[in-house]
Fold this protein.
Amino acid sequence: MSVERHSLEAPPELVARRRRGKVFQYLCLSATLVGVVTLVVLLADVLIDGVAWLTPTFFTEFPSRIPARAGIKSALYGTVWLMGLCALISFPLGVAAAVWLEEYAKKGWLQTVIQTNIANLAGVPSIVYGILGLAVFVRWMVPFTGGRSVISGALTISLLVLPILIIASQEAIRAVPGSIREASYGLGATKWQTVRHHVLPNAMPGILTGTILALSRAIGETAPLIMIGALTFIAFVPDGPRDQFTVLSIQIYNWASRPQPEFQHLAAAAIIVLLMLLLSMNALAIWLRNRHHREW
Amino acid sequence: MRHSISVLAGAAFVTAMACGGGGEQAADGGTLSGAIEIDGSSTVYPISEAMAEEFQIANPETRVAVGVSGTGGGFKRFCAGETDVSNASRPIKDEEAAECRANGVEFTEVRVAWDGLSVVTNPANDFVQCLTTEELKRVWEPGSTVDNWSQVRSGFPDKPLTLYGPGTDSGTFDYFTEAIVGEEDASRPDYTASEDDNVLVQGVQGDPGALGYFGFAYYEENADRLKLLGVDGGTGCIQPSVEAIESQTYAPLSRPLYIYVSDRGLAKPQVEAFVEFHLQEGADLVRSVGYIPLQPEQYAEELAKVRQLASGAAETAPAGEAPVDEAPAGEDTTAVQ
């Protein structure tokens, strides 16, 4: 029947419906292209602007009011410090929270409240974390953090990435099949042994992927760091977590806001460096995911 | 399955450690070391940035951090004892000084440069030589609808008026609005705004009906492409010039720029050295970032004041030192120099 129907001339309303379908398809395509083309134009613009300024001295010099001798040394060190400390702080906290929520917490109102709050916190604008960081880490915890220091920044950024990290880790832990846990219990393992030897190892690729993606979101954060006072001229490298710092995103902001065109080129060059860092972190995440991906 | 956790956790740990261990031991060298905390005005920031950069090149062991919290934000931190030096584009307010005193922060005001503002038109404009502050206010105040030169002053020709000025992030904007409109940051919004003074210069240059304002340094660089107006603040028309700005006869659009130094800060050798560097080697740097340096004798005066305080701070505990604005100038200060 239907074969005969198809061989017939299509009725006009069907043609119109198909045309509408096509229109919708192209609308969606152009919506996709808006984003992609903008990104390509932006990248091309930044590359043209900045590539010539990516000299070796750009990495070894401190910022300067004279464009020719300006570099990103302090910003690069600051970013690495910040991300390193942030990983050290947020990774154990996030994984432990996810383990508790998935493996230990009893289903009930408490767990629901916590879970809802974590989901909401993931959507809080980053400037709010900046205000919190200023009040708690910079002002209140001065004796410990030393004020506007790397550790204050890392703690603030850790708060920012924690919700994302917890949710990603929870998903990774949930993806470990229950049969594995049951087999472990069946062999007489305790809960701790099961988590330690079976759940976490199997969830780890997913957890690490989530961690790296969360950190790569944090690496470009500017607003909360400006809030806690990292918008400063810094021509030294932090010696410890209680030293002052600046980061790439802030250095970019600083240069981009200056009138002289040379500083725009410097900003573009710094953007390229930041993008490279970000893309390599994302590549690492994808590699980890693919390498350890397994079907159950 | 067992190996995966150790390998991956190990990898994560190594990555984190590699990230964390980024510190670098500075080479041994200079005698001065330690931190200098500076914050405050964005107008003074270019001067401090230049000073900090050159000072650290000369004293690689020191660590100078220069923030930009604005004059008021800077004083807040300064009076809480968080900073050694506070940059200011206006004198400290009484409330701020009281706050400092309440926290036991004694301080000294040090002038470091002069800043002036130029009001300019297109060189083809032949009917205006001078504007009064009231006329400027009428043009620039919020809600102003003046869009023709004939509305500025009766007798001016019927020509469209277009406005050019710095954007709201600019210290020049704060200063102009405060001095002309009477309230900081109160300005009509419908003008061509740019943080880039070069854009403003080009705009005024290409627009016969233009009226604009920006830092005096930018006028000087582009004097052949602009027409400079005098400003009448009630005492007659004054053309801005280096001399008129220094002597503050070009009022109200010239002002001194300050740094405030706490006694506790001055007691630290690196801070004292930094302030002295400001006053001894600063003139060229001030000029290079577009401001007008003090006269040599004014620098000497400020330097004598700082040295006297610093030696006092070293001998006795820093107490009871009232903020001195104008130290007695004269032969004895040059003797110190």
Remarks:
- The interface with chain B takes residues 62, 64-65, 77, 80-81, 83-85, 87-88, 91, 147, 197-198, 200-202, 204-205, 208, 211, 229, 231-240, 243-244, 257, 259, 288, 292 of chain A (CB under 8 Å).
